[in-house]
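Progress against Task 2.4 (sequence-to-structure conversion) is shown through the following example record, which the project officer requested during the mid-term review.
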Amino acid sequence: MIATIQPSELIGNVYAPASKSSMQRACAAALVRKGISIIHNPGISNDDKAALSIIKNLGAGVQEFNNKIIIESKGVHPVDTKMNCGESGLSIRMFTPIVAMSEEEITINGLGSLVTRPMNFFDEILPALNVSIHSNNGKLPLKVKGPLQPKNIEIDGSLSSQFLTGLLLAYAASNADGVSISVKNLKSKPYIDLTLKVMQDFGLNVPENKNYEAFVFNTSDIRHQTSTINYTVEGDWSGAAFLLVAGAIASVNGVSIQGLDIYSTQADKAIVKAVKDAGANILIGNNEIKIASSNQLIPFEFDATDCPDLFPPLVALAAYCKGTTVIKGVSRLAHKESNRGLTLQEEFAKMGVQIELKDDVMMIKGGNVKSAKVHSHHDHRIAMACAIAALKANGETIIEEAEAINKSYPNFYEHIKLLGASVSL
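Structure tokens generated for the chain above:
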């Protein structure tokens, strides 16, 4: 699909998409807790669909309605020996330890860039938990056979916190008692806060968090709740970040984004600080944020180590800040849907924005954005970043493979059109 975007002036309001980080964790928690769980405001992205498909394969009954999903589970009891995670990095990392709770050998695969992402973590850790695993030289497919037995282990948290999320859920569901998971160099700590909050909301055994250096399971004879759990998926700060940047770039009179919790544990709510530092006019209300552009956006400095998904919208914002913006955390970008540091550099160069990468730092020289033909590289956040940057370019911008947005935010083009963007697909 090709998206063509004309320079536009935005105004109006839109409801934030459902958080796939919250939705996918809720699916996993509903599977392992046993009983009936009702998920309200469910996500509709490809990643969300992948999570639902996985829990069905692992034995959960799933009934889908317009505004809720009812999940009935008796625990992990696979109905298929094959599982596909689509292109979801969270699903492969979170569900693999959960799959390892089964005595059956399960083959885990994925699509697109997921088949090239490193999974050496599981080769190193799962055997210590009495799990048999065979990988394709550290890549997919994985063949996993349990049952997983919780033990004291130490893991490296520098690549992704999502591996730890899977282990925490699997330990809780396996009645872990008197054991701990020690972690070195944990990245994206707010996402672990989200995991622990979801575990609590679903009545799972929540470990004691020892300053993110160890997670200790102490409860013995754990019994899962059997009553019905109702869980509402949060608004997504990751997707809403693009809407907020769009308002900062292209709205004199302001746009309102509804459905966002400023007290959320989601790491990407840090976008609020970035747009403030860039000089945008922002007003935070109850479940609503209003944002408008200023006379001139200014360069800013930002550390995105714990929120690497913010790089694409931050680059779009920096493109309109006259001067050099500095963003730290580039090392977190290599193993995304694309190598995002290089992809952002390549595609924004087409739009006249120079990006320099040096060690763990990205420097964006902003001020003038040109019309161009760009490519998503099949990366949802690259497609959205280019679309937002196009809103005040000096002419029409064409985005190739624009359907990449379906991975996380299928309604993205529809939502920016509601705000007044000129978009043709």
